[in-house]
Amino acid sequence: MRFHSKDRGTLRPSLNPVTGVEGDLPNSEELRPFTARRLANYKIAKQITALDELPLLANGEVDKQALRELHDSS
Q1: Tens-digit pLDDT profile for residues 5-38
Q2: Residue 26's domain is classified under what CATH number?
Q3: For residue 60, what pLDDT is reported?
Q4: Residue 19: beta bridge partners?
Q5: Cα–Cα distance between 39 and 30 in angstroms, integer?
Q6: What pLDDT is attached to residue 30?
Q7: Would residue 9 be called left, alpha or beta, if left means φ above 0 and alpha means ψ between -120 and 50 degrees?
Q8: DSSP string computed for 20-60
């Protein structure tokens, strides 16, 4: 598991994407200790939503607006 290198720290804490997971997606009990070792407490997500893949723009960059809309709709 690793943070997406281009987006580390650029999104709101509740939107930091995690990639590099193969097989079963980790649950929030597994992700919280992982993030707690790497982030300040105020940056740890309150809500974790698993995505099959990150939404991308036509140029291949992460579509941050689409992530915000996913977050706001949940």
Answers
A1: 555 554 454 555 555 566 676 777 888 888 889 8
A2: 3.30.300.30
A3: 94
A4: 2
A5: 15
A6: 81
A7: left
A8: ---SSPP-HHHHHHHHHTTS-GGGS-SS----SS--B-TTS
Q: Interior CA angle at 17 toward 11 and 36, to 5°?
A: 90
Say how many domains are in the chain. Answer: 1
The runs of H, that is alpha helices, within 8-63 are 28-36
CB within 8 Å of 19: residues ≥ 6 apart: 2, 3, 4, 54
Strands (E), 17-56: 18-19
pTM: 0.52
In this predicted model, what pLDDT tens digit does every residue of 44-73 receive, in sequence order?
877 777 777 889 999 999 999 998 888 787
Domain holding 12, by residue range, is 2-73
Q: Which residue type occupies 11?
A: L
